Amino acid sequence: MPSEISAILTGKRPPLDHDTKVLINMIFARFHHIYTHRFESAYRDETTLNQAKREWAMSLADTPAELIEYALERCKTEHAWPPTIAEFIKLLQPSPESIGLPATNAAYVEACRNAYQATGRQWSHLCVKMAALEVSYYSLKSEPEKLTRPLFEKAYLNLVKRIIDGETLEIEQPIALPEPNAYLSDELIAQLIAAGVAETKAPTLAYYMEKPKQSDVRSRYRERAQQELEQLGIEFNLPD
């Protein structure tokens, strides 16, 4: 049995079901009322109209009626002429404003403004902040708009879609590093002195203990101190 794609390629398209036909007729009837003479100009004759209806039906099959209605309402304010299929499909996606979020342009302006604020950033919605973080504050304030705007819009609209899908957005909080333990530092100094390190040198070697555990800076200082111990000829394995 030939696939639907092969049937289309050979010109033998599958028949449209009754509900789809009713839906498409409704769409074009609404277009006629919304656009009046502009609709008539776009679809001058019956043949053109019927061919267009079939293309629309193939593209919008199985689309929920409520989404069609939503897109038709958006047509009134966003398209002065009857939309193309591609334009109409975009209208099926709820806009940020329709769910109470800032419009994409307003969100971008807000993100750029906050990117210049070192502290006290004010956000209209977490969605805007998360999109700004995804692009990065540095990029928003240093890269040209032609680069950052598309990145921001993509991130923002993806987040909007996640909200529409019912997801609760939240920013992952970084895991706090443990606080340094001053007692352990003093204890290590005593151990180093006992191992033969000069009293004036021991605090320097133990300094890494004052940095947060598991941090890169602590690891670097410890490695440097271990190398100095080896240069001094003292066998002592520094704790993490």
Blueprint (SSEs and pairs):
Elements: H1 4-9, H2 18-35, H3 37-42, H4 46-60, H5 65-78, H6 85-91, H7 104-115, H8 126-135, H9 137-142, H10 145-164, H11 182-194, H12 202-205, H13 216-231
Protein name: Replicative helicase inhibitor G39P N-terminal domain-containing protein
Pfam family, one: Phage_lambda_P
InterPro entries: P-like
The profile of the biggest β sheet is: none
What is the β-strand count?
0
Number of helical segments?
A: 13
| Structure class | mainly alpha
Report the C-alpha radius of gyration, rounded.
Answer: 32 Å
The tally of structural domains comes to: 3
Strand content: under 5%
Whole-number mean pLDDT? 84
Q: Helical residue percent?
A: 55-70%
Protein name: Replicative helicase inhibitor G39P N-terminal domain-containing protein
Organism: Reinekea marinisedimentorum
InterPro entries: P-like
Pfam families: Phage_lambda_P
Word description of this protein:
The chain is an all-alpha fold. It is rod-shaped and about 100 Å long. 15% of the residues are buried. Residues 1-10 have low confidence and may be disordered. It folds into 3 domains: 11-93, no CATH class; 100-164, no CATH class; 182-231, no CATH class. The chain has helices at 4-9, 18-35, 37-42, 46-60, 65-78, 85-91, 104-115, 126-135, 137-142, 145-164, 182-194, 202-205, 216-231. The protein starts with a helix and ends in a 9-residue tail after the last helix. Helix 2 packs across helix 4. The protein has 13 helices and no strands.
